[in-house]
Specification:
The complex is a heterodimer of chains A (189) and B (235). With 189 residues, chain A is an all-alpha fold. Chain A has 2 domains: 102 residues, RNA polymerase sigma factor, region 2, helix turn helix motif (Rna Polymerase Sigma Factor, Chain: A), CATH 1.10.1740; 67 residues, Winged helix-like DNA-binding domain superfamily/Winged helix DNA-binding domain (Arc Repressor Mutant, subunit A). The longest helix of chain A has 24 residues. About 14% of the residues of chain A have low confidence. Chain B has 2 domains: 52 residues, no CATH class; 162 residues, no CATH class. Chain B has 7 helices and 8 strands; from the N terminus they run αααααααββββββββ. About 8% of the residues of chain B have low confidence. Chain B is α+β, with helices and mostly antiparallel strands and 235 residues long. The chains are: A mainly alpha (189), B alpha+beta (235). At the A-B interface, α2, α3, α6, α7 and α8 of A face α2, α4, α5 and α7 of B.
Amino acid sequence: MHLDDKGHDALLIAQLKERDPNALSAAYDRYGTLTFSLIVRITRDSSVAEDLVQEVFLRVWNRIQDFDDTRGSLNVWVLAIARNMAIDYIRSSHSRFTAKTRPLDQTDFAPISYKANEVDNTLDNSKAVREAFTSLNPNQRKVLELAYFEGFSQSEIALRLEEPLGTVKSWMRSALARLRTAMQEGRSK
Amino acid sequence: MTHSEMDELYELYLLGALELEQSSEIAEHVRQQCPYCLARLKESSRVVDALPGLIELKQPPPELRARVLAVAAPPVKRSRSQWPAAFALACAASVALAFWGLGQQNRVEELNRQRNELRGALAILSEADTKTVSFGQAQTEPQGRVFISHNGGVVFLGNRLPELATGKTFEFWLVPAKGTPQPAGLFKTNAQGIAVNVLAKSVNPADYAAVAVSIEPIGGSPQPTSKPILIVPLA
């Protein structure tokens, strides 16, 4: 799946801003599977994921006028909405961190929001990250998964794993460094 | 924190894995458009934005597509008055006029524009939170309604507006309680004398004291250049 095709995205964004229903159809065809998969991964519930996917695309449809493509690409925006909705759902349903749940409006573009270098291709990045991820040790993988798929902070991860915060930070730092290096090497090939 | 202390935190910030204090500090730098932080965040986003690539893809059920696409064609509420119907009629009339009045290429573009405007307006009228404000009770003054929805946007529907001189257009404004009016669309009346302006973007009614219409040069103005012909308080 080609995650980021700038030319097609620019046209798609323009059509969405014109409120062309065909554009919503195209956006769903382009990002629906990935959005659904991400939400299933986070919530581990297909029927919840169906409802949340509908909410994600409703938000895309209603908020596209606010979308600023200088801040991030469309796929990043859609997936950020999906991730935040899914994490907020599991937090809310589990009542684990109610006080920490953030309004979606504040999180649509954050924390995952800054456009990568324009010559980068997210597909290539994803491939490099996937390969690098498999080379991580189990602890590094675990902390990264808990942060990305469950939205835990490092101190929450430390509590959950019953490990010292310093250890968790070290695993996280080394995991991210490994992914970063793998992507840099992937780009230089 | 110094920038060098932040260097290892940007990816964690993008992941949402930082504690509130650190996250807030970086967020403040971002808010102030700190060039160093923005550059480092852009660099850090390469890793974080690629993380969805770790997901095992699962095909959504085929019927989900129809559910998602239904959001683009929400059911129209039964109107509480004749205005939505009049609005649809006005749009239809405009479409017909556009069809006969323009060249073939322009016709298609205009029809598409009109169709999208109509759909956008109907979507706003169908929002659950849509608030309706009527204006113009006297027989001699502009009359109409403003439909405003936090999620959907604003539809202005009016008639009995003054005739426009050549080279002029109506401009619609959102007027905050404090601050300058914000331009919110250009429009003209159709052959029936009905004017429609659709602003399809999120608008919090609480942020605005009124909407207004002024007459501006073709192409519009960033700020009103004439006394508004109409001010409609939203309270």
